[in-house]
Amino acid sequence: MVAGFAARGWARFPTDPALARWAEAALPAARRALAEATEALRCGGTWDVGLEALPNDAEGAVAGVPLAGAAIDAVETLAGRLQLHRAQLSTVHPGYPRPWVEEGEAAFRYRLLRDAAHVDGLLPVGSERRRMIREPHAWILGLPLTRTAPGASPPVVWEGSHHIMSRAFSEALAGHPLSRWAEVDVTEAYHAARREVFAVCDRVVLHAEPGEAVLIHRLALHGISPWTEAAEAPPEGRIIAYFRPELPGGIADWLTV
């Protein structure tokens, strides 16, 4: 595994020829998928979530080009070879983020000032949108498809935050039977852990180019940075394909760091 990943909760992989070939093949497919999307862009027309949008196969291949390289070898050391879902195509455009009708003032302020920092897999449940662990991912792998300036809303991660989150969720679930963990409200524990992370962990910007990769620990607090005014990107925007396969061992394994 990449040196330091377990401690930091993130890793960046340099340009890999095999991954560069995959990104080159994936970009035209991504353009077509995004052009055919029917869901309106979020954040005032500046963000396309692109869930399950890339037409890759269960091995990650696109248009016959395999998903391969050092980053792929590395993630397989974490949880073995996992069947992959269709990748998310997170696409950001200049001006991100802007206010929009689906997001209140406090949520927009959090997006603007705190990068909408979150832990994947915690879903808002019910009318009060209480956080519960419903999608225990194995890891988060980001593969850039477009070449952009560093200020074009790269992902960010709080270094070491996965340790704080693991402790907070473990304490919140203590005393509940394992079979009921997905029903436990972890909202307050999550919010308290986020505050601790902001106070003690360094925010790291993970800008990368096609052929490179960024790996984020499943428990790490991460988000999307605002687009800086002078940042340049191609017309289709900043596109990153994300793989987040679910962990076969469920929440119990998800809690480990």
From TrEMBL:
Put simply, this protein is called Phytanoyl-CoA dioxygenase (PhyH)
- Origin organism of this chain? Albidovulum salinarum
